[in-house]
């Protein structure tokens, strides 16, 4: 039974209210009432209730009312909720981290070591790698090798940094000597870039120190203003040129990427697809619609309708995502395929079971069929229920039709009576 | 197993396991995403004092957009409660299971509704058309178009 092992994160991942006030309800309030997942492309309808775009679109197809408060509504009332979408994006990132914190706190409590002070200043999570890089740079400054090494944009070093790093070091060292005021010893600066360390005294104002941010040598007196200016030192023209060219290089690269990305996204598909009434469509028309959307035309007509309907749903729902979260048509097609597989997978096992079941209970079936036969005659005279299908048939007939409405398949699977 | 219906059911089940069912309702079987069984009894003063019934849920792949098929189990010595909306074959005439189903409802919510439907019953009796309905009823109660005419009980 791989039933409960399925990894479905939900609110019970968090401890109950008494232990972790608010967390369960918080996680719950980020979840769609229809699918139970964290909102995917959250939308608001006329009454203010929120659902995943695809969920509410599917639900409204069955019944044009709010599933929560039953207020009448339809797809035209759907409005995207980008604020909530941003909240969900952040929560998705924070959730595992919070859970991990809870876990480690529980462990700490279990081991009774109440000394978990470092817990509070646990390293910032992975997503903030960028800043950690920067934060760690002060340590790097103390190492001589870093002198010539890591520039702010390591990617674009090719054009700026000379081929041999040692040369660069020397060149820079010279530079430093030139600019150093007479009283500070040049060797110290070049070999041991921590001249201030020994005596614990603050460096003199005109002493060169390494900027902890950009690692350039800056006069101590202007270090603060240098950092305030974002490490752009107006005095050292040379450096400025370098950093500007660096920036242009970097920006150029980024621009290219951005352009490519723009090309990838389908800019002409900004408009929602209309909802079709399939009953009025001829097979040929429906097929053309499928081809137009570049989705498969395999299977029978019933499947075409389901497939096209689902496509319209996920396509329109995708438009409710804000820019960066939007998926490409290719991704949507994959999603459609997966959905179809899930639908058929669900139906397959019962059919296999059914065959075995049929073999096992052949006699019973025969008896049931026999018992049902006379009923057929009286059937027409029953006003109580408007059931149009003969009950005697299902066990045999529905097993052959995998595309029959699922109700049938489930029916024939078990015979509780 | 990642379709919408099975994921949603898995979540419901996890919640039942971690928070338990409301008083008087107990999960007795949920081995798959197709059929679950609950026992249901009415707490406090009612005509069903000390009686326990078994409620069966069946789900299709469109759950929760489509409603579950809910009925009382009437095999192996178990019976459907005597109630003006419950047929002797276990079928239940309740709008919430038919045209008033909403995808935000859950298995537990349905159990609670049925429990309160029983609790508010004053007189134990079968629906008037019980015999004719049971004789021709489809196996799946969802295939019956019930006519909801009485909202007093």
UniProtKB/TrEMBL annotation, chain A:
Compositionally biased intervals (Basic residues): 253-262
Compositional bias of kind Low complexity: 386-405
Q: What is this protein called?
A: Postreplication repair E3 ubiquitin-protein ligase RAD18
> What organism, scientifically named, is this protein from?
Agrocybe pediades
GO CC term, one of those recorded? nucleus
Q: Tell me the keywords, alphabetical order.
A: DNA damage, DNA repair, DNA-binding, Metal-binding, Nucleus, Transferase, Ubl conjugation pathway, Zinc, Zinc-finger
Gene3D superfamilies given for it?
Zinc/RING finger domain, C3HC4 (zinc finger)
Q: Which reaction is this enzyme known to catalyze?
A: S-ubiquitinyl-[E2 ubiquitin-conjugating enzyme]-L-cysteine + [acceptor protein]-L-lysine = [E2 ubiquitin-conjugating enzyme]-L-cysteine + N(6)-ubiquitinyl-[acceptor protein]-L-lysine
Stretch list, region Disordered: 1-20, 106-190, 247-273, 340-359, 365-417
Q: Where is the composition biased (Basic and acidic residues)?
A: 106-118, 408-417
Positions of the RING-type domain: 32-70
Q: EC number(s) per UniProt?
A: 2.3.2.27
Q: What is the lineage of its organism?
A: Eukaryota, Fungi, Dikarya, Basidiomycota, Agaricomycotina
Q: What's a GO biological-process term for it?
A: DNA repair
Which GO MF term does the entry hold, naming one?
single-stranded DNA binding
UniProtKB/TrEMBL annotation, chain B:
Per UniProt, the keywords (alphabetical) are: Ubl conjugation pathway
| Domain UBC core residues, every copy | 4-153
Q: Does the keyword Repressor apply?
A: no
- Residues spanning the signal sequence: none
Does this entry carry the keyword Metal-binding? no
Q: Kindly provide the name given to this protein in its UniProt entry.
A: UBC core domain-containing protein
Recorded hits in Gene3D superfamilies, A to Z, give: Ubiquitin Conjugating Enzyme
Q: Where is this region: Disordered?
A: 128-153
Return the CDD domains for the record.
UBCc_UBE2W
Which Pfam families does the record cross-reference, listed alphabetically?
A: UQ_con (PF00179)
* UniProt-listed SUPFAM superfamilies: UBC-like (SSF54495)
What are the Basic and acidic residues biased-composition ranges? 140-153
Q: Which InterPro entries match?
A: Ub_conjugating_enzyme, UBC, UBQ-conjugating_enzyme/RWD
